[in-house]
Amino acid sequence: MHKTAAVSKSIVFPGRKSRFAKYPWQTVDVGDSFLSFDNDTELEFRGLAYRAGKRLGRKFSVRKTLEGLRVWRIA
Description:
Layout: E1 33-35, H1 42-56, E2 60-64, E3 69-73
Antiparallel strand pairs: 1-3, 2-3
């Protein structure tokens, strides 16, 4: 006779953690900006901004500042 595992209900499935979710792409209004708090290179962060813009139908611009990499929502 085989033992069967107990069935658990109402346990939330853990979502994938993505770099997309680390930044406030969806909540940034036109003219607002935020800093990258990771050690992303400028090229990596520009890629993230481009993909976020494509996914959300928005445009972002990344600039290197004295504080670090900053992204603005421009459209």
